[in-house]
């Protein structure tokens, strides 16, 4: 029952919300299609949160994604023991970097009175969820060794079975609870994406890197 909920109901519900709510928000409320900058309220710990978070999580997610889209070459690559060890070590370092960044972002919101006023329930839920997702990922990478390899033979065929509307949850049902929670967390994050500031992921805001730096000045009394 729990398995069917996590591996059938959750992914399809998340996908449906992503497909239907996202364009609705884009068309009706485009001004909220952003991660609202709070840099002018606090920027020191923002730097130590946002950089490790993004530089850690984006390559890790890209590796998850590559496993799904090119499983054959990934199997060949990770079939080499040395490459596997190197890839897993880099993955673990990046995962830890992301956990550190996310914890900094949480502490920043909790410890800055000005920021607390513009932090809403959805922001807290999202931050805690992302922290739990990164932590459970690092746990799996540490205690269920060689995940980048077994992922290709279990989670990847399961994810493809979802896309072909023939969910084969047998690939996932025998895993320990922590892995099931990691998968459930991912579906929850996808489901929340169209409702929260995480929607900026679809906007891929990289052009701002080319923007000139913004200088904020307080109006003197
Ligand atoms: C929002 C989506 C997701 C996020 C943010 C996320 C995040 C992470 C992070 C930070 C790690 C640690 C990387 C490392 O230390 O090597 C990790 C590892 C892992 N994740 Fe995810 N994950 C997501 C979705 C998924 C999904 C959907 C699955 C499979 C159903 C999955 C399976 C794994 C596995 C097997 C590992 C261990 C990799 C290894 O041992 O090197 N993840 N994840």
In short:
The protein has 221 residues and is mainly α. The chain contains 11 helices and no strands.
Structural summary, described in words:
Helix 2 crosses helix 3 and helix 4 (81-111) runs antiparallel to helix 6 (121-143). Helix content is 72%, strand content 0%. The chain has 221 residues and is an all-alpha fold. It is built from eleven helices and no strands. The model has no long low-confidence stretch (mean pLDDT 93). The protein has helices spanning 2-28, 44-69, 71-78, 81-111, 113-116, 121-143, 147-153, 155-163, 170-173, 177-192, 200-203. The protein has one domain: Transmembrane di-heme cytochromes, Chain C (Fumarate Reductase Cytochrome B subunit), CATH 1.20.950.20. Protoporphyrin IX containing FE binds next to helix 2, helix 4, helix 6, helix 7 and helix 10.
Offer a few descriptive terms.
Fumarate Reductase Cytochrome B subunit, 11 helices, 72% helix, globular, binds protoporphyrin IX containing FE
Structural topology:
Layout: H1 2-28, H2 44-69, H3 71-78, H4 81-111, H5 113-116, H6 121-143, H7 147-153, H8 155-163, H9 170-173, H10 177-192, H11 200-203
Bound molecules: protoporphyrin IX containing FE.
What structural class is derived from the secondary structure elements?
mainly alpha
> What kind of assembly state do the chains in view correspond to?
single chain
Mean pLDDT comes to 93
The CATH topology annotation reads as Fumarate Reductase Cytochrome B subunit
Shape type: globular
User: How many DSSP H or I helices?
Assistant: 11
């Amino acid at each position: 029952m729990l398995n069917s909920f996590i591996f059938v109901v959750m992914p399809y519900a998340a996908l449906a919300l992503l497909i239907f709510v996202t364009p609705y928000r884009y068309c009706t409320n485009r001004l909220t299609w952003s991660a609202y900058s709070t840099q002018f309220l606090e920027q020191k710990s923002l730097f130590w949160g946002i950089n490790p978070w993004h530089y850690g999580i984006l390559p890790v997610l890209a590796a998850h994604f590559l496993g799904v889209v090119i499983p054959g070459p990934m199997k060949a690559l990770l079939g080499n023991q040395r490459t596997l060890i190197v890839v897993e070590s880099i993955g673990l370092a990046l995962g830890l970097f992301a956990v550190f960044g996310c914890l900094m972002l949480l502490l920043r919101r909790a410890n800055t009175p000005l920021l607390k006023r513009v932090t809403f329930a959805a922001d807290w839920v999202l931050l805690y969820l992302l922290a739990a997702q990164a932590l459970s990922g690092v746990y799996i990478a540490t205690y269920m060794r060689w995940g980048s390899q077994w992922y290709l033979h279990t989670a990847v065929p399961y994810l493809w079975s979802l896309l072909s509307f023939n969910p084969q949850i047998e690939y996932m049902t025998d895993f320990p609870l922590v892995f099931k929670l990691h998968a459930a967390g991912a579906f929850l994050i996808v489901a929340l994406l169209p409702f929260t500031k995480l929607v900026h992921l679809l906007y891929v805001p990289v052009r701002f890197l080319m923007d000139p730096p913004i200088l904020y000045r307080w109006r003197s009394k």
